[in-house]
Amino acid sequence: MRIAMSGTHRVGKSTLIEDLGEELSEYRVVDEPYHLLEEEGYEFASPPCLEDFLEQLRRSLDLLEEEDTRNVLFDRCPLDFLGYLLTHEDSDAFDVEEWLPRIRSTLKTLDFVVFVPIEERDRIRLPAHEDSNLRREVDEKLAWLLLDDPYDLGVEVLSVHGAGASRVSQVIERLKRG
């Protein structure tokens, strides 16, 4: 199976993927584009600019296209970056239609996406310096992209909730169904 984690920042995606990596030893974990780009010397603006999210989208798509093996867990999904791009203050400079064909074809390489939404009681405390409104906007945009599927992307989505062990169990149960 090829599975990508999706969600706004500080919802527990990385923790979930670490826990799944321990539970599913036959799976390989692919780090999120932000960390990979940083390791390669890419310098992100603070706060991230539109180009930073475009670069992460490119890298996310490349990772899905390059990695053709089974049993892979991707930390982040291309739709995460689409969510950030569509909510960015400079979003009018982003042409979503230009990217949709590649996003559609690349998402078809995934068996499903695990969506980790913001929960009523946050599992991870948001530092005071981070923009909680942006986080909520991106979460809402991701729910729209993943669950409402306005662009007919056709990707299966498993929305997980609860504490870490419960989230892991929900993914494992989905894997058992094939």
UniProtKB/TrEMBL annotation:
SUPFAM superfamilies attached to this UniProt entry: P-loop containing nucleoside triphosphate hydrolases
InterPro entries, per database record: NadR/Ttd14_AAA_dom, P-loop_NTPase
Short name of any one Pfam family annotated for the protein: AAA_28
Domain NadR/Ttd14 AAA, first and last residues per copy: 2-143
Protein name: AAA family ATPase
